[in-house]
Amino acid sequence: MALSGPAAFLVSMLTLGGIYAILAIGLNIQWGQTGLFNISVAAFWGIGAYTAALVSKVGGETAFSWGLPFLWVDVVGFPIPIPVAVILAAIVSGVVAVLIGIPTLRLRTDYLAIASLGLAETIRLIFLNEGWLTGGGTGSTVSNPLVDLQYTNLTLLVITLVVLGIVYWLAETGVQSPWGRALEAIRDDEEVAQALGKNTFSLKMQAFVIGSMIMGVAGALTALRLNYITPFEFIPEFTFYVWIAVIVGGSGSNRGAIIGAGFLMVLLEGPRFLSDFLPGLSGSVAADLRFLLIGLVLMLVVTYRPQGFLGDKQLMTEDNT
Amino acid sequence: MSDEPLLAVDGIEKHFGGITAVDGVEFEIEEGTIVGLIGPNGAGKTTTFKMLGGFLPPDAGEIRYRGTDLQDIMQPSRAEKSYFTGSAALVAGLGGLALASQSTPSTAIQAGAAAVGAGAGLGAYRGQEILKTRHFGHKYSRPFQVSRAGMMRTFQITRELEGLTVFENLLLSPKNQPGENVLKTWMRFNSVTETEAANHERAEEVLDLLDLEHLRDEYAGNLSGGQRKLLELGRVLMADPDLILLDEPVAGVNPTLSKTLLARIRDLRDQGYTFCIVEHDMDVIMNLSERIIVMHQGQKLMEGTPEEVQGNQRVIDAYLGG
Amino acid sequence: MALELQLVVNGIVFGSIILLASIGLSLLYGIGDFANFAHGEFLTLGAFITFAGYVTFGLPIYVAGLMAFLFVGALGVLIDRILMTRHRDSTPIILLILTIGLALFLRAVIRLQWGDNQRTLGMPLERGTELLQGSVGWIDYGIRITSTDIAIVFLALVLATGTHLFLTRTRMGIAMRAMSDNKSLAKVAGIDTDTVMTVTWALSGALAGTGGMLLAMQTGVLFPRMGFNIVLVVFAAVILGGIGSPYGAMIGAYIIGIAQEVSVMIPGISAEYRYAFAFLIMIAVLLYKPQGLAGGRW
């Protein structure tokens, strides 16, 4: 509202980059730390977003009568602060992760990849077909209290950065702890971890659920950013955006995940700038170029630098299956 | 209980397809002894070892550790069972709710359908568990519980966690680390830092004991074969088990180091640890063990002191391919 | 009854379409030891090349299909030579990520070339022939089969038989089977594993290209995501059949095809979830019989 031009663009890009960084940290706990090849990032992202949208929609739009301008969202007539909506998104994502983890976390790496792709597709179908819950293909409005503020986007950016900071601290503390060590052991050799008395299924479940909850949080922020969400915001292809961030940044490194998210933003916005310089380039072509670039970068990185910027070379080059 | 040996193996069998790998083996291991397990290639030693460690469930027979069947040790805990049951009930309940809400707007009927669904999910899960364990003879394979109970194994081909340093490999082992509960870590429980400090101290001791201090921060993937064997022994010591299953502890280790290693094992036995060792080097096994079990073609050929085994014609025949 | 029989017939037709894709995917999975996530894009590409031949150039449909067979097969060779030869010793994880990148790349190329919108193949519509018309009591039964359906099943079976002959009668085919069984042994036995991989890519691509043509013939509409939409079903068929076993994949394709069509009859579950049904079968197989129906045999 109050911002315009390059400043507004910058704020918007930083917010989106922050959301991708949160997603990348979530995936990094699953993949980089524990070796779980999860390609259903978009599913948990979407679950978080829809949860936030649903929570905000129940009840009226009377939040402001409570005089707490930007922290409160209404639910069932009671005001619920945004943090609670974010936490609810995390909890719902976590519960779904538990239910999905029970059958799939016993699977071998490549089977897990296939199964999680199937899962992402199934959840997208649910978003699309269960209109009573999600609004179906037309989507779902988010009653976003931020909209009425003077600095909507700037506030969202601040919230995103605070969440990113918290998530980063949690992930980094976890990784440095004996818990992170045990996860790393599972990644390297699950049977050895078993021989050392680690309940590997339970630990994998913890990593999967915590990672998914973080993705759910990113989903809630996305709902606040978009104000209106449709299933097309969470197609399985977007999962690979997050994978790019993790792989380029370096699997196993949380700082790498943040750097990778920055790189991803360059990759995503690059084609748009290109279309400014090349008048013949239409918007949809720019979008296609974006996917082309993503695919190319994935192939080049795993061929020439599998450990990314800051990653652990062992993870990508050792055979653990 | 007092007359029950530390480990009792009672007629265990294992079949792979049509092949019988282990066929009715039985032996006992007394506390504070070193027992050798030998036999020509394909005798079933490795398979037996896997079954002892809980990595393979036996098709028949029983393995008792301190008088308790391994199968009982490896039962899922009550918490785990209720967690799976609850998940099954939740999924089926949601299914019931979704089905009912498509056909009727009545909240009562929807709630009823959800409850029926939850009950059905709970029943179905419990039912298949009972069916699985009682009628299809399902056996559990959850080696981490065996390890926690105090029986730990090493691997024939050393399997270091290569992405971890030597020091981290050692720190991984100890049981009951509060820091492995991520919530306690995040909430900065004192017990986390205290235990970690104690484990650091112990890991330094073990490094010193095994002469590995100079490799403290080296990645385990960069160690030589002999150093890996040492590290593996160190990892087991960190966990402080009662019974240690060693799979070829000195294979590929240079003679000097191997001598140190064997002396270390004897010291540990004198401190009350119990060992069961699979080894191809006859000198090593004869010098080290108090009792030797000879396996051949999946069966126990004989059991006795090193002297008895050495002079036995059947053992010699087995090794010469008789 | 009318409905059920028709569904089984539809399932056989759909099974025939995924049959070709499944054989190719299973061969590549068994011989190269990785899951090719770009296989769906091979299907899409096959469909669009058929479109280009049939609609753009006005060629007969089967000539266009041959073009798809050849072109996607050649693309397989190209991918192997340019990209995969560097990764002969890479871990399955690296290969997995590579094929994901390849999938995104190919899909973007398809979008750039043919656009985002749906295209129609515009083959002449036909009512189909009524078969087995009659009734028992109050139940009417009857099925309707079009000549396209018959052509699809026939073509799929011909190509499957051709693949079978190739795998059992030619040196190259036997080398492929040997490599699938035991890679290091095959190498020791003097098999040129590098060439075998290239041929596998070519065969896998060519079969998927034809599968894409059949898919386009059956549905009539083409869009850049069409292959990706059914790649999961193809994976389900491969896993059900037993990874690496082309014969298992054949059985798996028909079982999944029929099961998916018949699943429409389950009350309370809408037809949109058909693909999810295949996914459920797949998870169950992975959990309870991960070696699949073929159980590691060929």
Structure overview:
The complex is a heterotrimer of chains A (321), B (322) and C (298). Chain A is mainly alpha-helical and 321 residues long. Chain A has one domain (5-317). Chain A has 13 helices and 4 strands. A two-stranded antiparallel ribbon of chain A has the order 1-2. Chain A has a two-stranded antiparallel ribbon with strand order 3-4. In chain A, a hairpin with a 2-residue loop joins strand 1 and strand 2. Chain A starts with a helix and ends with a helix. Chain B has 3 domains: 7-75 and 142-156 and 241-319, 3-Layer(aba) Sandwich (Rossmann fold); 78-135, no CATH class; 161-222, no CATH class. Chain B has helices spanning 45-53, 70-73, 78-103, 107-135, 143-149, 166-172, 182-186, 190-209, 225-239, 255-270, 282-288, 306-311, 313-319, and strands at 7-16, 19-29, 34-38, 60-65, 68-69, 151-153, 243-247, 274-278, 291-296, 299-304. A 6-stranded mixed beta sheet of chain B has the order 6-7-8-3-9-10, with helices on both faces. In chain B, strands 2-1-4-5 form a 4-stranded antiparallel beta sheet. In chain B, strand 1 and strand 2 (19-29) form a beta hairpin. The model of chain B has no long low-confidence stretch (mean pLDDT 85). Chain C has 298 residues and is mainly α. Chain C has one domain (2-224). Chain C has a two-stranded antiparallel sheet with strand order 1-4. In chain C, a hairpin with a 2-residue loop joins strand 2 (129-136) and strand 3. The radius of gyration of chain C is 19 Å and the shape is globular. The relative contact order of chain C is 0.21. Chain A binds chain C through residues 37, 39, 103-104, 106-111, 113-115, 117-119, 121-122, 125, 128-129, 237, 240, 243, 247, 284-285, 288-292, 294-299, 302-303, 306, 316-321, and chain C through 34-35, 37, 83, 86-87, 90-94, 96-98, 100-109, 111-112, 115-116, 232, 235-236, 239, 270, 272-273, 275-276, 279, 282-283, 286-287, 290. Chain C: This is Branched-chain amino acid ABC transporter permease. Chain C: Keywords: Amino-acid transport, Cell membrane, Membrane, Transmembrane, Transmembrane helix, Transport. Chain C: InterPro entries: ABC_transp_permease, BCAA_transport_permease. Chain C: It comes from Halorubrum persicum.
